Amino acid sequence: MAETVPNNFVPALRYHWLTKVYDWVLKNVFPEKQIKEDLIQLAHLLPGQNILDFGVGTATLSIIAYKSQPAAHFHGIDVDKAILEIATKKVATEKAVIELRQYDGQALPYRNDMFDTIISSLVFHHLYTEGKTKSLAELFRVLKPGGRLIIADFGKARSTYTKIAFGLFRRFDGEYNTRINAQGLLPKCIQDAGFKSVVELNHYNTVVGTITLIEATKE
Ligand SMILES: C[S@@+](CC[C@H](N)C(=O)[O-])C[C@H]1O[C@@H](n2cnc3c(N)ncnc32)[C@H](O)[C@@H]1O
C-alpha cells in the first residue's frame, strides 16, 4: 500500500471513529448483500479481466467479486488508510487475491485503458461535486474502450419514506456531497464524463434512502 495522505475526505460512516463498526452497520441495517451481489452479477466478470473497485472500503464488494470469478485480477483503491487496514485483514481471512492501494484522491495510479470493468458501491455520495467530476474523468481514463462502469449509490428517492429518510441521512453524511445524488443527477455526471449508454438498472428502497444501480460504457 502506498503511503499517501489525502487532503480531506468523508470517511465510510462520516466520522473516523465509526469506521470500525462500518461492516456491522452495513450488514445489519442495509440490504448490503443483495445490492452487492446484484452489482457483481450484472458485471459478468470473465477470467483474465482486470477489475477495479473504486472506493473499495472494507473490500466486501471486491471479495464477492473475487469469489464469483477468482480467475480475474482484482484491484481496490481507497483514500482511507484505516479502512484499508480492515480490508487487508478481511482479504487475507477470505483467502482472496485483491491488490489494495491507497492514494490521495487525485489521479488514479493506473495506466490509461487498464481495466475491463470498474465497480463501485456507496462512494460517489462521499464526493463533493468537483470530486465526482474529477473521479469520473479518472475512471474514464483507466477504463478500456468497450469496458463497463457499474455503480451502486444513492439516487433520487423513489418513495415518500426514502425521501424523508435520505433527507435526515444527508444531515449526518453531509448535505453538499450528497446533493447531486438526491437530485438524481449522478447518471448525468457520468454521461458528462464521456461515458455512453448510461442506464439505471435497478432501485432499492432502504432505511436511509433509495440506492440506484447504474451501468455505463466507454465506447
Ligand atoms: C460508504 S464507504 C463504501 C465502501 C465500499 N465501497 C462499500 O460498498 O462498502 C465509502 C468509501 O469511499 C472512500 N472514499 C472517499 N473519498 C474517496 C475518493 N476520492 N476516492 C476513493 N475512495 C474514496 C471512503 O474512504 C470509503 O471507504
Task: State the main characteristics.
7-stranded mixed beta sheet, alpha/beta, binds S-adenosylmethionine, 219 residues, Rossmann fold, 25% strand
Concise account of the structure shown:
It is built from eight helices and seven strands. The protein has helices spanning 22-29, 32-43, 60-68, 81-93, 129-142, 160-173, 175-182, 186-192, and strands spanning 50-54, 73-78, 98-102, 115-121, 143-154, 196-206, 209-217. The radius of gyration is 16 Å and the shape is globular.
Distance between the termini: 32 Å
Helix fraction, binned, reads: 25-40%
CATH homolog superfamily? Vaccinia Virus protein VP39
CATH class: Alpha Beta
Morphology call: globular
Q: What compounds are bound to the protein?
A: S-adenosylmethionine
* Helix count from the secondary structure assignment: 8
Could you give a short account of the major beta sheet?
7 strands, mixed
What number of domains?
1
SS-based structural class?
alpha/beta
In CATH, the topology is named Rossmann fold
| Series of secondary-structure elements, N-terminal to C-terminal | HHEHEHEEHEHHHEE
User: Radius of gyration from the CA trace?
Assistant: 16 Å
Query: Taking strands numbered 1, 2, ... along the chain, how are they ordered across the largest sheet?
Result: 3-2-1-4-5-7-6
